Amino acid sequence: MDDVRSGAAARVGRRIRALRTEREMSLTALAARAGIGKGSLSELETGRRNPTLDTLYAVAGPLGVPMAELVGDDDWARLDEGGISTTRVRVLREDARVTEVYLIRLAPGGVRRSPAHAAGVTERLVVLTGSGSIAYGGRRVELAAGSVVDFPADQPHVYAGDPDSGFEAVNVIVTPRT
C-alpha cells in the first residue's frame, strides 16, 4: 500500500495549508467554518488522511475557492463514496471564473448533501438518465432525463436519486474569481 503522505493526499494537504495560510486563517478557524474536526483538518494538511468529496467541498467553501484549486487540474479524476460517483471531466480557468465539469452518478435512493460553496458560485445540472430531485434554498426540483436546472450553489443543496433508478448527470460548477 502506498503511503498517503507521498501521493495525492499529500498534494491536496499542502494546497489546503497554503491557501489557509495565504488567508491568514488558523487551523481552528478553518475547521470551525468547514464544520469538520480540527484533528481531521490537521491530518488532511499533513497528508495522513485521504480527503473525501464532502470534506473537499466543506473546506473549499470557507477558503473561497473551487474544489479544483484543492485537487489540481487532472481531468478524469474519479471519486466514489456514499452512493455517488464523481468524475471530473474538465476544468477551465479564465480571468473572471473557474468552470468545473463533472459527470455524476447517484445510486438509486442515494442522497448527496453538499455544503455551500463560496459566494457567487452557481451550478447547472443536466440530467442524462434516471430521475431524482435537487433541493436548494427552500426549493425542491424534480429531475428526469433531459432536465436542466441552474441554481445558486453558495447555499447548502441536496441531490437525491429516485429509489428505483438514481440518475446520471453532467454538473457544471462556475466559481467567480475575486
From TrEMBL:
Residues 16-70 form the HTH cro/C1-type domain. It holds the Pfam family Cupin_2. The keyword Signal does not apply. The keyword Metal-binding does not apply. Signal peptide: none annotated. InterPro entries: Cro/C1-type_HTH, Cupin_2, Lambda_DNA-bd_dom_sf, RmlC-like_jellyroll, RmlC_Cupin_sf, TransReg_Diox_bact_type. CDD domains: cupin_XRE_C, HTH_XRE. Keywords: DNA-binding. It comes from the Bacteria. PANTHER family: HTH-TYPE TRANSCRIPTIONAL REGULATOR (PTHR46797), METHYLPHOSPHONATE SYNTHASE (PTHR46797:SF1). This is Helix-turn-helix domain-containing protein. It comes from Myceligenerans indicum.
